[in-house]
Amino acid sequence: GKKGILEGVKMIVTAGATKEKMDPIRYFTNRSSGKMGFAVAEQAAKEGADVLLVTNSQLEVPKGVRTIHAESAEDMYQAVMANANEADVIIKSAAVADYRPKKIYDQKMKKQEGDLIVEFERTKDILMELGRTKEHQFLVGFAAETENIDHYAQKKLQNKNADMIVANDVSHEGAGFQGDTNIVTIYKKDGSKTELPLMSKQDVAHHLIKEIAEAMKEVR
Ligand code: PMT
Questions:
Q1: Would you call 85 a catalytic residue per the annotation?
Q2: Which ipTM did the prediction report?
Q3: Mind listing the pLDDT tens digit for each residue in 89-115?
Q4: In order of start, what are the domains of the chain with their CATH numbers?
């Protein structure tokens, strides 16, 4: 059939929330469903990319996409870093926990008198590490913000050494977590930005894939 615009491109996509355990039955997580990242994986595979999806989400895996199951931020870090060298493009649409409980209890924590104080420690920043160690990879981060979107997106581009940042205003109706639609702005290294109107996550993914294919032509 018709040749896709990402034919022969090796891609890693991360999607959905991570889960950070506190004991065998309790964990901390966030509202990410994985829909945005799964849409990216699906559209990329349709365009001929060889896609590895790293996720904890139970959504149906798109046709032709390989997956690695990763529950925690640490699991995701390990899975992504182990495969990063071979990848041409890495898209970090997962909502990775920034903190995890400092201690994981082997047994169910029992109720005690009074308040419970849980200590958290920072997880590894996967995007930051990818940016620090990157050689040839085209690196795409997402940004979920509720204010100062332009500012934070530009900062993420620089601080994390990413080639592209996809920012969604998660305070907007129809954008961000869980729904089937999103409103995003795509920021590129050259300072340009593309604001997309409200559309399905599949359409957002399609636009994003086109932008990536274009941008990769320019750097190569
Ligand atoms: O899954 P859905 O329900 O469809 O929702 C989609 C989404 C809103 C989750 C998605 O569009 C999105 O914005 N994903 C990124 C959410 C996020 O965690 O943003 P952040 O601003 O906290 O992180 C910025 C970037 O750093 C992200 O690319 C994130 O994957 C990455 N990161 C963050 C923390 C960490 N420890 N490691 C990382 O790699």
A1: no
A2: 0.98
A3: 999 999 999 999 999 999 999 999 999
A4: 10-219 (3.40.50.10300)
Centroid of ligand 1 to alpha carbon of 70 (angstroms): 15
Comparing CA positions, the residue from 80, 59, 84 lying closest to residue 68 is 80
In this structure, the strands spanning 120-122 and 99-101 are: antiparallel
Q: Is 98 annotated as a binding residue?
A: yes
Residue bearing tokens 């590895």? 52
pLDDT for 220 equals 52
Closest CA to ligand 1's atom 31: 127
Residues sharing a CB contact under 8 Å with residue 190, sequence separation 6 or more, in sequence order = none
Residue 77 has pLDDT above 60, yes or no: yes
The helix-helix angle for 201-219 and 35-46 (nearest 10°) equals 60
Question: What are the residues whose beta carbons fall under 8 Å from the beta carbon of 150, sequence distance 6 or more?
Answer: 185, 193
Quick one: tokens of 138?
A: 């085209």
Q: Is the minimum distance from the CB of 73 to ligand 1 under 6 angstroms?
A: yes
Give the span between the Cα atoms of 170 and 32, in whole angstroms.
Answer: 11
CB 64 within 8 A of CB 45: yes
β-strand 164-169 against 193-195: which pairing, if any?
Answer: unpaired
Which pTM value belongs to this model?
0.97
Cα(10)–Cα(71) distance, integer angstroms: 23
